[in-house]
C-alpha cells in the first residue's frame, strides 16, 4: 500500500509513550555527553555545560515521566551525521545525541556548549515524549551568544524568541556553566514547538 | 508542503493529554534550519541476548502466565528502504494488565515470571522478532470506566529513524474508545498487528507488524 500522490509508504502512527517508559532502558552514557563512557579515557572538546530545567503542563505542574532527547553540534558546530563522516571538525568523543527519562519532570543534562553551525546560533534540539502526547520538538538557545539576533529559528518565532533562550545561571564548582530552560508544554507561557512533518 | 504547522489533537477522555498537549499551532521550521532538527542516533548494542524472549524473566525461568505470542516485522523508511541495525525497545503489561514499573500503582496482579521489558536489533533487511505475553487490557479511567485496549509499546531508534508507537490487536472491544486511536482515525489500522499462523515455534499466537518510519526521518537515508 503506497500513497498515490507521493509513492511513499504510509508511516506507522506515532503514539504516546505512556506513563511507564522503562527506567530499565536508561543509558548513563546518553545523559552526560561530556565524557565518552563512564570510566573510559576520552572526553568531548568544548565548554562543559549543565542544561537544566522543568517540563511543565498546562497547570504549571511538573510533567512526570517525560522522556527527553537532545541533539546538537559539537564544539566546532559540526553535527555528526552520515554527511559529515570524515570531516576534519568531527570530535571522535562526541556524537551529539542524548536521552533521559525524567521521573519528577525536572531534568539535568550534561553536555558541551554546541558551536555555531553555518548561519546559526548555538542550539540544542529537544524532543519531548510523554504520556498524553506524541512527540513534540523545539530548539533551545543560550543567553548572550553571538548569532542569537540573526538566527533564522529565533527570527521565525518573532516575539516568542525569549521563550527559547536558556538563562545563564552561574558555574558549578567543577567549572560547568549552568543554563536554565523550562519547557511549558501547554497554556500560558507555552514554549514554541515546531512541526517537523509539515515543514 | 503545507504553509502552516499542525494544531495537535487532544485525546478525548484523556486527562493527561488535556494537560500536556500544546494549544498553539506548531511553528514551521525555516528551510536553512531543517536538517538541524533531524537527530542521528548512534548505534548502540544495548540489547542483551535473551531479551527477545519476554515470555520469561531469564532463559532458565518458567513461562509467565497468559498467552505467549511472537511478533515479527520489518522496519522501513517511507520510500521502502530497510532500516538495519535499529534498536527496538519493547515494553508491555502482563496478562493481568499490570506493568512491572515502579510508578504503576494500579494494584493489579503482578507475575513473578514477567518483566515485560525487552530490546532487539533489526537485521540487515530491517527485520525484527520478539516473543511476549499477550498483554491484558487495563482500566485507565476508573471514574468513567474507560479501558486501554491491549497494546505493546515500541520505541525504534537508529540512524535518523526515531519513532515511539504502539501495536494494537485487531477486534479488541476497547480499540474504538481509545483516545490516541481516535486521534489516528482511519490510520489506526496501520498500528494493528496482523495475525498469522504461529508455525512450529513455542508460542500460541503470532502477529506481523511492519513499521514505517516516516516524514522527517528519511533525511539521512535517501
Ligand atoms: Fe501502556
UniProtKB/TrEMBL annotation, chain A:
<dbReference type="InterPro" id="IPR015889">
    <property type="entry name" value="Intradiol_dOase_core"/>
</dbReference>
<dbReference type="InterPro" id="IPR050770">
    <property type="entry name" value="Intradiol_RC_Dioxygenase"/>
</dbReference>
<comment type="similarity">
    <text>Belongs to the intradiol ring-cleavage dioxygenase family.</text>
</comment>
<dbReference type="InterPro" id="IPR000627">
    <property type="entry name" value="Intradiol_dOase_C"/>
</dbReference>
<dbReference type="Pfam" id="PF00775">
    <property type="entry name" value="Dioxygenase_C"/>
</dbReference>
<keyword id="KW-0560">Oxidoreductase</keyword>
<dbReference type="GO" id="GO:0016702">
    <property type="term" value="F:oxidoreductase activity, acting on single donors with incorporation of molecular oxygen, incorporation of two atoms of oxygen"/>
</dbReference>
<dbReference type="GO" id="GO:0008199">
    <property type="term" value="F:ferric iron binding"/>
</dbReference>
<feature type="domain" description="Intradiol ring-cleavage dioxygenases">
    <location>
        <begin position="51"/>
        <end position="79"/>
    </location>
</feature>
<protein>
    <submittedName>
        <fullName>Protocatechuate 3,4-dioxygenase beta subunit</fullName>
    </submittedName>
</protein>
<keyword id="KW-0223">Dioxygenase</keyword>
From TrEMBL, chain B:
<comment type="similarity">
    <text>Belongs to the intradiol ring-cleavage dioxygenase family.</text>
</comment>
<dbReference type="GO" id="GO:0016702">
    <property type="term" value="F:oxidoreductase activity, acting on single donors with incorporation of molecular oxygen, incorporation of two atoms of oxygen"/>
</dbReference>
<dbReference type="Pfam" id="PF00775">
    <property type="entry name" value="Dioxygenase_C"/>
</dbReference>
<dbReference type="InterPro" id="IPR000627">
    <property type="entry name" value="Intradiol_dOase_C"/>
</dbReference>
<dbReference type="GO" id="GO:0008199">
    <property type="term" value="F:ferric iron binding"/>
</dbReference>
<dbReference type="InterPro" id="IPR050770">
    <property type="entry name" value="Intradiol_RC_Dioxygenase"/>
</dbReference>
<dbReference type="InterPro" id="IPR015889">
    <property type="entry name" value="Intradiol_dOase_core"/>
</dbReference>
<feature type="region of interest" description="Disordered">
    <location>
        <begin position="1"/>
        <end position="23"/>
    </location>
</feature>
<keyword id="KW-0223">Dioxygenase</keyword>
<protein>
    <submittedName>
        <fullName>Protocatechuate 3,4-dioxygenase beta subunit</fullName>
    </submittedName>
</protein>
<feature type="domain" description="Intradiol ring-cleavage dioxygenases">
    <location>
        <begin position="71"/>
        <end position="99"/>
    </location>
</feature>
<keyword id="KW-0560">Oxidoreductase</keyword>
